[in-house]
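Subject: Sanity check before I submit

Could someone independently write out the structure tokens for this chain? I want to compare against mine line by line before I put it in a report. The sequence has 667 residues.
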Amino acid sequence: MNLSEAHFRKSRRSFWQKIIATGGAIAIIIIVLFVFLFWIKATVVEVLPEAAANQAQRILSGWGWVQHDKVYLLSSTAELEISATGFISETITLVRNELERRIIVELREAPALIKATATPADSQIQWRINAKPAGSGASLQATLEPGRYSVEVSHPYYQPQTTSIELTRAEEKTLHFELAAIQGHINISSIPEGIPLLLNDELVGQTPLRLMRDGGIYRLRIQTPDFETIDEDIEITYQQPEIERNYRLSYKKALVNFTLNPLGGQLLIDGKTMTINNKPVALDAMREKIISYSKAGYASKTIKRTLKPAQQENISISLIKEFGTVIINATPSASIKINGRASGDTPQTVTLNTIPHTIELSKPGYRSVRRTVQPNSQRTIQVNEVLLTEQQANLSESPALFKNSVGIELLLFKPDKTQRFELGAHRSEKGQRANEILRTVRLTRAFYISRSEVSAQHYRAYNQRTPVSNLPINNITWNDAALFCNWLSAREKLPSFYITDNNTIVGYNSASIGYRLPSEAEWEWLARYAKRSAPTQFVWGNQTTLPKAVGNLADESAKNNVAVYIPRYNDGYPELAPIASFPPDKAGLYDLVGNVSEWTHDVYSVDTTNETRNDPLGNAYNTGSSGHVVKGSSWRSGTLSELRSAYRLRAVGKADDRGFRIARYIY
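---
Independent answer below. Compare away.
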């Protein structure tokens, strides 16, 4: 084998080696592409509606490509824009891991555009599409979905117009409207007739008048020398082309300046009060006006005036002082003061100006009377007064029952000043004791007395150490009870009845109306005489048999606590009972029988004087050991002698069955 043959064989072998190598590479590429396409998987993007599908374009922004309706995505996300003529483009985001095999995208039709104008151009033009407001002004531009529409243009002064249009997708339509002016009528009448009428400052005739005018606003004026001017804007529109006016004209007001003497009175015009403040008063013209002026102490004056339109008038009214007669009487005769100035004594006849006057009648020892009197020029005024003494006046002003500042109820008693009665008991009276000497007494002063005994609760307001209880206060001295009375007087701003020295009672003021203890005479009068047709031996009467539940006494329940008890009597309380637990007596007082015996005002003494005593308060005070009178039975009382109203006891110190009630004079 020669060299050239060997070379040929070598070249031939190299050629086939290259062919084999190239074929292998292509095969590998084909295999790789096949595997790649299998791994990517295409997504079908379907476009609706059909009219859009035929021309739809798909543009991918990102790594991948679009082949017809298929999308191949290489990157993790990409944007796909889909568009078609006459439709609104849609952009969707594709995510490779979330891709579906088929995605449906529905394109919306592109809206149509209408451009409308109207002549004449005016800002009052209103546009409506399918009867709904769409805008205002000389032009309209609106974007609408494809379809059929009704376009309406209106203006208050022009005929409205309407047209129907059919719009397709993405269509642009131009409309123009020529508006025709409307005409209306203005009908004007007036009372009275024949009044000149101006329209937009142009004289157009006299009422009644009918005018034809184009739509618009017109300034209407009726102006004459005698009548009030009428100015009004009227408007003719296509909705209201007919204007009706019927004016009832009013005369121009007359102006009146009033000069009044004296000032400060009441001016009435046709019964209506007028305020005068240095300004003319406007009054209706051509009508009679009734003008009245009055002031207390003067004769009123009335005038009549009929004024012309726009007239200016000055009216002067002067009043004359007026007097009346007053007859003043008083029983008994008294001194007179008129408006604070002395005017002699009653009876008296005086002439006074007819204004209110203060008349005061006074007399020493009597309550002054003050009256306001207004004389009358047409008749005589009489003042007839009965003066009361201070005592009578105080008495007339005092209520029959009142509750004081600590809650104690007090009853008012008015003994007959002429009545004499006996205290004590006859020696023949069963149970009579030696200290119950008969005495004649007369009570001349009205007084209050508490309906019940003072309770611990009442007393606690004075002494905070007292327990809270509705039981009667007990175990207190006479001095403690009297100090309570002085404290209560001070609380209610009354003068003290008792005179003290270092908290010890050393005397009393019998003229005081402050709180005090009842006198022995008052206590016994209340228990035997008050509200009774005849004096009684006991609070309940004269029978010696005890009525049921007459009071808290030494009954069977108390027999272990007392020396003597009342057989077959049971009041339910072995010791103290709450105040007012039993019915009141005939005078309306509680517990005059039983519960606690009661301190009285009087220093204890045995008085053998036969003369009648008025309002006795006992002997003069002393600081010794005389003691004070105690009246009434208690829960320890079990004998008829103790139950009698004449029973009296001398006591000095405290006791668990002893308390008190309070009293005070009216004057």
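---
OP: Matches mine. For the report I'm noting this point. The first strand starts at residue 43 and ends at 48.
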